[in-house]
Amino acid sequence: MTTIKKARQLDELDGLQKYAAEFYKKEGQIYLDGNSLGLLSKRAERSVHTLLNSWKDYGIDGWTNGEHPWFYLSEKLAAMCAPLIGAKSEEVILTGSTTTNLHQLLATFFKPTASRYKILADELNFPSDLYAIASQIALHNLPESSMKLVKSEDGQTITTEAIIEAMSEDVAVAVLPAVLYRSGQVLDLQAITEAAHEHGILVGFDLCHSIGSVPHHLHEIGADFAFWCNYKHLNGGPGSVAGLYVHEKHFGTGPGLAGWFGSAKEKQFDLDVTITAAPHAGAYQIGTPHILSLAPIEGALSLFEEAGIEAIREKSLALTQFMMDCIEQELSNTFTFGNPLDETRGGHLFLVHDEAARICKALKEYGVVPDFRAPNGIRLAPVALYNSFEEVWHSVQILKDIVTNKTYEKYENKRDIIA
Predict the structure, then answer these.
(1) Of residues 181, 284, 379, 408, which has the active-site annotation?
(2) Rg (CA), the chain
(3) Pick from 285, 306, 327: which residue ends a domain?
(4) Which 8-state DSSP code applies to residue 262?
(5) Domain boundary residue, one of 306, 325, 357
(6) pLDDT tens digit sequence for 184-200
(7) Which NCBIfam families has this protein been placed in (predicted)?
(8) Residue 115: what are its φ and ψ, rounded to 5°?
(9) pTM for this entry
(10) Is 127 annotated as ligand-binding?
(11) Domain total in the chain
(12) Distance from CA of residue 292 to its chain's centroid?
């Protein structure tokens, strides 16, 4: 049975509880939207000030002087980020945005031929990825049908079998999410990668909803490439610089979209007419790093270095399980769980209810910050680094009160401009 006493007992045993004090948490509010935008940490705030002051103190010499020289900052942060995805530091670079990185990777690795000209994706993927894939297909003057979508049987999840079955001989590249953004399903990256390679397909993964909450082993399983944002579970700040990974077996493959920051460091300022590309993932940078948008990531990643991704995953699973138990106990048969009930779920839950938009608005009024996904989904993400079991218990009590008393009925059942 779930009780407030049980929640407090779990908090007492929580080895990560101390990190909650590192974050700016609004008094009287339970923040459960860290899978959309993570909270600001005090360390991220300090690293912003440090980088800002380096501009003030050094001017242009900040590129090579100070605590975090700008010229090497993307590589330094990549080395901090690499353990979270099971990559070598030279296989990672922090650069661009999620979608521009996907464009770079497809421009580099999607080389359609007469017999292999399709990109395999799935119909539940975040639409931004699908827009980029469609754009790349159009650039090659290929028909729209060259994007092949794996279908979902239940509208919430995708089976590994369905993905593998879709790996036909005309597929050149597969682009799939590590965690589905709605249901939170964790895909079997190893099985998918092995099957793709057996079919002669390059495979890349969108880690936006997994990095920082789910451990990965990309180098070990041989995944060809990956890309992600750093502002969700990694708490890098709104619009913070994104990241990409390229397996070392592809080093030397020229970037499809070349730019001067993809140069080898020692040659960059020779300013030759022909680029000498970096011999690692740095080759896939395009423009000058956005230093002030990289700045908070340094402080944010230091928390993950200390806490460890395995411990974070363990607590995340415990938090979501406790929340499901509370919902089952207090709100039996009120919601349908759209997320997997076992450990193939990521860092958030997905509750399905016809009045989801109204319920989300009511939750915010009562101090719980959820995330609405049209047409009928509520995402709730208790984050291991800053949420507690007691907060989970209280949030479900508030949800129960809202649903039982139908206080949501004063709102329109439609999303705001930003869901």
Answers:
(1) 379
(2) 22
(3) 306
(4) G
(5) 306
(6) 999 999 999 999 999 99
(7) kynureninase
(8) -100, -25
(9) 0.97
(10) yes
(11) 2
(12) 20
